[in-house]
Amino acid sequence: MRWHGPGDVRLETVELPSPAPDEVLVAVAYCGVCGSDLHEVKDGPHGIPVSRPHPISGAVAPLTLGHEFSGTVVAVGAAADVAVGTPVAVEPNYRCGRCVACGEGRYEVCDGFGFAGLMGDGGLAEYVLVPAYMVHPLPDGTDLAAAAVLEPAAVALHAVRRSTVDAGSSALVVGLGPVGILVCAMLREAGVELVVGIDPVPARRELAVRFGASTVLGPDEDVVSTVRRLSGGVHVAFEVVGAQAAFDQALACLRPGGELMLLGLADRLCVPALDMVNAELRISTSVGYRDCHDELIGLLAGGRLDLGALVTDVVALADAPAALLRMATEGGRGVKTLVRCGGEAC
Ligand SMILES: [Zn+2]
Ligand SMILES: [Zn+2]
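^ inputs. structure came back:
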């Protein structure tokens, strides 16, 4: 399914490429739909290269969307260290290996920042060619639908790792989409007992409780006073919405010295600098992930992370353009929609 422009996504047949030495061809089993895909469909381009090819992928629109995917390796380049037939989850961020960030191991903020499925061809397809460094082998028998949700789980784990939370902390999560719910799960894994989740949709709040939130509220309930009563102000607040109101609410729930971890993708936010200075609040940020997949695959394999429970809708690849256009215009009340891509090996 290729993005040609806002409101214009099409199913197209393209020639099946054979892998370069450091690439692998994956038969895609499932690919999740992310809010960033819907932004591109609604009023993109935001990250999709349209005038200049992406520096690492070399891609320029039209390109295949989808960055949350799992599948089976069906062909490998000569230098790729993975066997044909291996079930894999894909960690879709590009890395150049040469910039300052890559040199520090922080490939999530590589100069060539980008994701297969936004800045290069992605997983809303029967087959996709990806750099070999992106694939993570899965234990045999792994549910490939659940494995497609490892990508947003990695976003959540990376944010929790970057934050200052520890087992004695209290936390707030504003926005309980898939990433927000998974932040609750990762906080629970980190031993955090007091996790307050905020979202207007009751079904999302219920799921957040199942994944580790200890208290859930609608954004219009008495959030700040409830959080203060429960915790005296939280140590860390995760903003997973990307909107001024959510940012303000998260900030207002912090204790003095607390940390706001910003994951939401707002273009600009207004910061109450004086209040922040006077309470020594800090804002931290988190984007993408690095070195998260192996830990998450272990949690999934060990039955500690029920990623399949986040999947509320599954659509066929043939129906993906209509489904994404509808979701982009009407929004959705579900949590995670997966596209069944039906590459031959799944
Ligand atoms: Zn995403
Ligand atoms: Zn780099």
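The CA atoms of residues 45 and 162 lie 29 Å apart. The two ends are 18 Å apart (CA to CA).
thumbs up if we can close this ticket
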